[in-house]
Design a protein that fits this description.
The chain is of the alpha/beta class. Helix content is 32%, strand content 22%. The chain is elongated and about 85 Å long. The model has no long low-confidence stretch (mean pLDDT 95).
Length: 462
């Protein structure tokens, strides 16, 4: 990668880069990516004229935790990390704890680390098990990696966390990965929680139960490594993962709430606060979700983005989100289709990123915006957002989550005894204006927003 894109990422205020697909995909996974009719149709639709060189297989069917030769191997990864560090950026890599590629070496040299089945299991659930040939005439039935609600991922093999030897081996692997990066994004991390794993696979009578994440993260920290630990997590398992040592967990709840369209529910979630806000990974899109411009459309997207990214925690932006891309490609495809940037989307994110670089939004002074009715005879408007204030400085981000013009009063924490006026500036429009300090305290700043509109005010009363 040339220097210019890295310089731009740093200049825009980001703190790290997550690379997907660094590790080697197994040959079986690559071959299987060329056999599924639905995938083939998607390749044809989005990248006409694709070749086998464009299909890398799933980056979550890992054949070896070694940087792929296509990206230059371990030396190239180390050089890339050094270039990021020169710009104040960290490197985040994937760790997929639940499963490996189905041709991972452990299928032959450490089969007891993997969940095994029987011929009866394979006959009963052919979508969840497969038969592996060892090359010496022996065969073993293994389980595909899966979660308890679906059939297995057919290009994977399930790791067996019921066994102490497996947990030890995987902890050793995490230490090796952590030495190569500054953060680990742990894919579907909740699947290896003890209660979830037992519900999915049952218990073993000859093994003492263990707690992989608790053991692993403690071991990694004790070794002197301190990667940022990020858990992709669902099913309300986020508190369990934070308690075991994760720094951040996916906040899918906020995403779903915003998608539902209820401003009341959105405000309630913000007002509840807690770990999902302060330790949440806040996002509008990723490789598992549709593109934000496709999901919300150009009208609703800015409001959802303003509410999401004005929160504390980890703000996660996906490649192409700023440009307004609409096509979500399968992870097996190594080449993006061409899409022209959407100027209005680029302009919106430019203003939002300027706002997010404000020092207040790097701190701990967040609270939900105290939205009030605009007048005594009207109800609470469908407006939500964030208020950051410390000393004389403040930042207010608000979004109208409806298709009608709305007004609100928002009391601001300005100095209690000061008189005069305060200058506020809207970072999205560049407009500045003066307001009475007495009015800002009570009844509050009057904000009127067009349908789906956003505003981001900053001030310094010092």
């Amino acid at each position: 990668m040339p220097d210019a894109p890295l310089d731009e990422i740093a200049a825009r205020g980001f703190h790290g880069v997550w690379l997907m697909g660094v590790w080697q995909t197994g040959a079986v996974g690559q071959a299987m990516a060329l056999t599924f009719p639905d995938l083939l149709a998607t390749y044809d639709r989005f990248v006409p004229g694709w070749t086998e060189d464009d299909i890398g297989g799933s980056p979550y069917s890992i054949g070896a935790y070694s940087p792929a030769p296509e990206i230059g191997g371990p030396e190239a990864l180390a050089r890339f990390r050094a270039r990021l560090q020169e710009r104040g950026l960290g490197l985040v890599l994937d760790f997929v704890p639940n499963h490996l590629g189905r041709d991972h070496p452990w299928t032959d040299n450490a089969p007891t680390r993997l969940v095994q089945g029987t011929a009866e299991d394979l006959e009963r659930s052919p979508d969840s098990y497969f038969e592996h040939s060892h090359g010496d005439g022996r065969t073993t039935v293994f389980a595909h990696g899966r979660d308890p609600h679906f059939a297995g991922w057919s290009d994977t093999v399930q790791v067996d966390y019921r066994r102490a030897e497996t947990r030890t081996a995987m902890t050793r692997l995490v230490r090796e990965l952590a030495a190569q990066c500054d953060g680990l994004r742990c894919d579907v991390a909740m699947l290896v929680l003890p209660d979830v794993f037992e519900r999915t696979w049952g218990a073993l009578d000859d093994e003492t139960p263990g707690d992989f994440w608790r053991e692993c993260i403690a071991d990694v920290r004790a070794s002197g490594l301190d990667p940022v630990m990020i858990a992709e997590a669902y099913w309300d398992t986020e508190p369990q993962l934070l308690e075991r040592g994760f720094d951040f967990v996916y906040d899918k709840g906020l995403y779903d709430t915003l998608l539902g369209g209820s401003a009341d529910d959105t405000r309630s979630r913000l007002e509840a606060g807690g770990p999902s806000i302060w330790n949440g990974v806040h996002f509008l899109e990723n490789h598992d979700e549709e593109r934000a411009m496709q999901t919300w459309g150009p009208e609703r997207m800015p409001g959802a983005a303003a509410v999401t990214y004005s929160l504390p925690g980890l703000r996660f932006f996906f490649d192409g989100q700023r440009e307004g891309r609409r096509i979500r490609i399968p992870v097996q495809l190594s080449r993006d289709p061409h899409e022209d940037p959407v100027p209005e989307c680029v302009d919106f994110y430019r203003h939002l990123e300027n706002l997010l670089r404000h020092p207040l939004l790097q701190g701990e002074s967040w609270r939900p915006a105290p939205v009030r009715p605009a007048a005594d005879d009207v109800g609470l408007p469908p407006i939500a957002g964030s208020l950051w204030a410390e000393g004389s400085r403040g930042c207010l981000v608000v979004a109208n989550l409806s298709g009608d013009r709305q007004g609100t009063r928002i009391p601001l924490p300005v100095p209690p005894d000061a008189d005069g006026t305060l200058h506020l500036r809207d970072e999205f429009s560049g407009t500045g204006f003066e307001r009475s300090l007495n009015e800002l305290r009570d009844p509050g700043l009057y904000v009127e927003l067009e349908a789906w509109a956003v505003q981001g005010f900053v001030w310094d009363a010092g």
